Amino acid sequence: MNLTLNETFLAAFCAIAILAAAGTGVGQWVASRTLDPLRVTRLGILNSRIRASWSVLAVFTIAFAIGPQALLVVFAIASLFALREFVSLTPIKPSDHWALVVAFYVVIPVQYLLLGFGRASLFAVFIPVYVFLLLPVIIAIRQDTERYLERVAKVQWGLMISVYCISHAPAIVTLPIKGYEGRGPLLLLFFLLVLYLTDLLQIIASAALAGPALKSNPNKTVRGVAAGAIAGTLLGTLLWWMTPFLWWEALLMSAVIVGTGFLGSLVLSSVKRSLGARVWDTEIVLTRGVLERLDSLSFAAPVFWQITRYLWVIRADV
Amino acid sequence: MEIPVRFLPPIVWLVRLLVGAYPRWLGSAPTATQRIYFANHTSHMDTIVLWAALPSSLRANTRPVAAKDYWDKPGIRGQIAREELNVVMVDRSRDDPNADPLEPLRDALEHGFSLIIFPEGTRAAQSRPGPFKSGLYHLANEFPQVELIPVYIENLHRSMPKGAIVPVPIICTVRFGAPLGRRAGEDKDAFLARARDAVIELAV
């Protein structure tokens, strides 16, 4: 198939819109007919995910209309909300104030600007090297050594997850793959579709297949996660035409996305519980729970970016 | 040069972006009853955050009470206070010993406005409020029909600790408690202690 970028996006957009509409309809219909409380909660979560997919669709359409720069703004705001949430859960002291000012108002813009100006090599080391060395200095200047290492480590961890890792998702767009020029947004769409359809399929499968629930996420069952992961990988394979990959490469890359995504949600749920987060707020406010929504993305994006860059950009040049 | 406030991004959006200001109505509902909201005071942003946490239908009719020496200045701060928040200015300096600082508050209550007040009078460095000043007691006696709603603003002292110039984004919630009842014959100190306890109770 040799569709143009716009035609491919239009096809993908229509497919997702039809799926979302069907999902919304069926979800509401089933929810109105069931009385079992456990199923009602799981259906509620499913319906909220489907509603969220509408907003993702809207954001993507706007970004496609305006250009890839709009995606940077969207993900920068997502990073801001994620870091805000991380810092809110973390005990910090007033003497950390300047470190946080730097984290929010310097590190986030610089990381995304580096991406915007195509400085991929500096982008990949800015937070893990330069910020890693700068933050402890800022906190040390205040000469408040009480639990010093703990405070430094938490700010750095928050930056790594919510800025460094999340910024790798829009970085997928900018990968200079030979023979795939100008189609970067489609690769990002492929990545996001595999990630979120897998999540959706796991929730649906968990509601359908009984069995023990996951410890890290009581809304998913072990069997549901396994079935959803297999279905998500196959679905990614079927989307090979959107990507620069052959069908079996798309299968392996989908497996990588699904696997790292699962590990991401496992790790972040442990982090959240060790920070003593209360049982997650049932009322989902617009930005609350950004970290939870992006947990799988934050692990999958850097790995996907690195592998794609190594195999399809660097190795292809050799 | 003064920039008219209507050309600035809506202040409520800015507050939401920065600190969330998510309301939690625990013991009362957001209704149009005339009220005095009294809250703990930990940061300069308290006034705007509590106001932004109210639904827009109530905001138009609710006026924060704030210190004249901080808010009544030329520039953006004064414009926000006058045009957006419709602040009731209170003179803390007491240049004229005969002037009653509560007079503008009475005036606003008589015109049917709800008020937002911070009875500590100054910002506390910690999350628990300090002792309350007597203004709340006098207003409660003079306006027995006005509901007294305790409010606890969580986390804001972490966003902008005393002495900081730049606020840091942190999720804040604003908790509204049940109306504080009046007790016949209660003296000033007992009433103020009870009001303070009502705010502290929301902190847990």
Q: What would your notes on this structure say?
A:
In chain A, 37% of the residues are buried. Chain A is 77% helix and 0% strand. Chain A has a domain at 67-174. Chain A starts with a helix and ends with a helix. Chain A has 318 residues and is mainly α. In chain A, helix 1 packs antiparallel against helix 2, helix 3 runs antiparallel to helix 4 (97-116) and helix 7 runs antiparallel to helix 8 (222-238). Chain A has helices spanning 5-33, 37-66, 68-89, 97-116, 120-141, 148-171, 184-208, 222-238, 247-274, 290-293, 295-317. Chain B is α/β, with parallel strands linked by helices and 204 residues long. Chain B has one domain (10-203): Glycerol-3-phosphate (1)-acyltransferase, CATH 3.40.1130. A seven-stranded mixed β-sheet of chain B has the order 1-7-6-2-5-3-4, with helices on both faces. The longest helix of chain B has 16 residues, at 188-203. Chain B is globular, with a radius of gyration of 16 Å. The chains are: A mainly alpha (318), B alpha/beta (204).
Summarize the topology:
The complex is a heterodimer of chains A (about 325) and B (about 200).
Chain A lengths: L4 H29 L3 H30 L1 H22 L7 H20 L3 H22 L6 H24 L12 H25 L13 H17 L8 H28 L15 H4 L1 H23 L1
Chain B lengths: L10 H9 L2 E4 L9 E5 L6 H8 L2 H4 L2 E6 H4 L4 H9 L3 E3 L12 H8 L3 E4 L17 H8 L4 E8 L1 H4 L13 E4 L11 H16 L1
Parallel strand pairs in B: 1-7, 2-5, 2-6, 3-4, 3-5
Antiparallel strand pairs in B: 6-7
